[in-house]
Amino acid sequence: MTSRIVTTQPFTDQKPGTSGLRKSVPVFQQPHYLENFVQSIFDSLNGCQGQTLVVGGDGRYFNREAIQVILKMAAANGIGKVKVGQHGILSTPATSCAIRKFHAFGGIILSASHNPGGPNADFGVKYNIGNGGPAPETVTAAIFERTKSIDCYQIIDAPDVDIDTLGTSELGGMVVEVIDAVNDYVDLMQSLFDFDRIQQFLTTDGFRMCIDAMHAVTGPYADQIFQQRLGAPAGTVQNAIPLVDFGGGHPDPNLVYAHDLVEILFGDNAPDFGAAFDGDGDRNMILGRRFFVNPSDSLAILAANATLIPGYKDGLAGIARSMPTSKAADRVAAKLGIDCYETPTGWKFFGNLLDAGKATLCGEESFGTSSNHIREKDGIWAALFWLNILAVRQQSVEQIVQEHWQIYGRNYYSRHDYEAIDSDRAHTLMAGLNELMPTLKGKTFGRYEVEFMDDFSYTDPIDGSVSQNQGLRIGFTDGSRIVCRLSGTGTQGATLRLYLESFEADATKQSLDPQVALQDLIAIAEELAHIRELTGMEKPTVIT
């Protein structure tokens, strides 16, 4: 096996987004495209020679081919050992778990998360650092800088590695270990939650649930945990076999794309509990019988009930949420007497807080919740947390949520996504809002008076790093908010996200449909941003 240096030229579009580099599969299949980005990762990592990396992905189209390239490039770049998930599969939470368990230098995750998969759909490459979390902006900026000047990459000439058989082999002096993709993660879950109590709840109390793996990476994990270890009946986990195109579906666990699960939970003879997970297993949607749990509420409810869970029985150090996530968690933190941190969107911003012991639970409104057990969001963890709470409290999902609102008040909340819109139009819309910033304070719109408008900036309380231009916020004197930002997770055009929030303390007014409760704020957002005119869309693609 010989290592060779291949001459290349930079690509101009390899800037990582919120969570790595995401493009369509045909873009990644261009000669040198994947190799350029992977070499830029290796070139940006000081001291990686001789170290251990973890590599895996969500099984989408091009996953196996990309892993073979990465293995051969890792060997040529002097990596000492690579632990790769069997069949090339590792969920994002399981990858974080493996990095931490094996004290690896870092890991490369192949996924476009909740984006569709297939020959003409999406693919992604993300680097995670030694704490198991997504690379911070300093690292991704260094990778991007390298992509702009790269002129060669290193790779060995060798046959493809067998990634289907557990065990070790050698590749150009580098050890390749194919590891079980599921067991280490399952053991971690069992250390946090009361599996005996959940099992009794699932098997003796007439409780029924439905789990939708959406033909994505969580299928094997969900089968092992919910059906084999917790005793749920066969068929509880649906769409459990990972497919390269996710069965033609869109592996995004929300009310639109997880429509099969929604129909079951809102249908006749509905089960008591439902959960769906996304392409790489880090997002979750929680449903009760004919009841949807908003992700912002979910974070707050998990925090309020954390001491019921064995892994969190001693309480929480703090809570962290992304800026667009509702302030429901802030109210729980205030009652518990702990800090609640507001960060930009992107799980990487939670890493320092978790490492410093400042936060225990973290969450984003985009169906992501997790804790300090790893450094990624974690879909199955969230479902287990809910099941453990249900097993202890012996109430329905709806009862738990409504009781939470009665205690803390309800933060009416909704996100409107306008997907795949023209990028120029999206930036025109944001520029128009920016122009309003100096003039809005004190203006009234019906019963709402503007208290402030800004472009959110975050100073990391641990390392002092500053992240600017993280989303436009309009705050009103009653605590209501409108937030507008462009997403960094899509691969076509731009995705505009509009977030709307209003607080209601009166328990007699907490049962409205959020779209009704927020209709005045929706109208104000349209008046200020001219969304329909500039996007050319009469309604959002997805409403959460």
UniProtKB/TrEMBL annotation:
Cellular component GO terms held in the UniProt record: cytosol
Domain Alpha-D-phosphohexomutase alpha/beta/alpha: 14-151, 184-287, 296-408
EC number from the UniProt entry: 5.4.2.2
Keywords per UniProt: Carbohydrate metabolism, Glucose metabolism, Isomerase, Magnesium, Metal-binding, Phosphoprotein
Source domain of life: Bacteria
Reaction equation(s) it catalyzes: alpha-D-glucose 1-phosphate = alpha-D-glucose 6-phosphate
Compositional bias per record (Polar residues), positions renumbered to this chain: 1-17
Keyword Metal-binding in annotation: yes
GO biological process: glucose metabolic process
NCBIfam families: PRK07564.1-1
The protein, known as: phosphoglucomutase (alpha-D-glucose-1,6-bisphosphate-dependent)
Originating species: Chamaesiphon minutus (strain ATCC 27169 / PCC 6605)
